[in-house]
Design brief:
Blueprint lengths: L3 H23 L5 H13 L1 H7 L1 H18 L5 H18 L2 H18 L2 H18 L2 H17 L6 H18 L1
Helix pairs in contact: 2-4, 3-4, 4-5, 5-6, 5-7, 6-7, 7-8, 7-9, 8-9
């Protein structure tokens, strides 16, 4: 038997879920005025969008790549972040690691000039993971060490990205020894 609180939470979540699905499909029609709101959602909610709205997330990030290119320019930080988010979606949802790497590399070109240290650490960590999955342990280690260096210099010791980087570095190191 469900409690009143869990029933209320489930009903609320059902309504909010539909609102979020609607939001993701509206992104393709955003205007220059509404774009800023959509780009904030795309950047701040990348993890839940990709993990909970798998079917819609690839289209959402495709749309946001186009919108960021159109409204901010192809060399703007937002565009680099959308390339990276799209790479994350195709890697995790479609399992297309090579396509993910290609989009991460495009993002790296932009973010190396326009991104923050956190942007770059996250990007390097994702590249390291994808190269690990392809079996290219040397390239994986190179990117993960770059991520770790940025995380260490930036004092990101409590950041989940640093924990993930160290975890993946452990896998890579183990694979290199075997």
């Amino acid at each position: 038997m469900q409690s009143k609180n869990s029933s209320t939470a489930t009903a609320t979540m059902d309504v909010e879920w539909k609102n979020l699905e609607k939001l993701l499909t509206q992104a393709m029609h955003c205007t220059e005025d509404s774009y800023k709101s959509f780009i904030k959602v795309a950047m701040l909610a990348e993890y839940p969008i990709i993990n909970f709205f798998q079917k819609d997330s690839i289209g959402f990030y495709e749309d946001m790549m186009e919108q960021s290119r159109m409204f901010d320019g192809a060399d703007h930080r937002h565009h680099g972040l959308m390339l990276s988010a799209y790479a994350q979606a195709v890697t995790n949802i479609e399992g297309d690691i090579r396509k993910g790497i290609a989009y991460y590399e495009k993002a790296r070109f932009i973010l190396s000039a326009k991104g923050t240290p956190v942007d770059m650490a996250s990007l390097y960590q994702h590249l390291g993971w994808n190269y690990y999955k392809t079996g290219d342990l040397n390239k994986s280690q190179q990117y993960l060490q770059e991520a770790y260096k940025l995380e260490e210099e930036g004092g990101m010791h409590t950041n989940v990205v640093m924990c993930q980087t160290l975890s993946i570095l452990g896998l890579v190191s183990t694979g290199m020894v075997e």
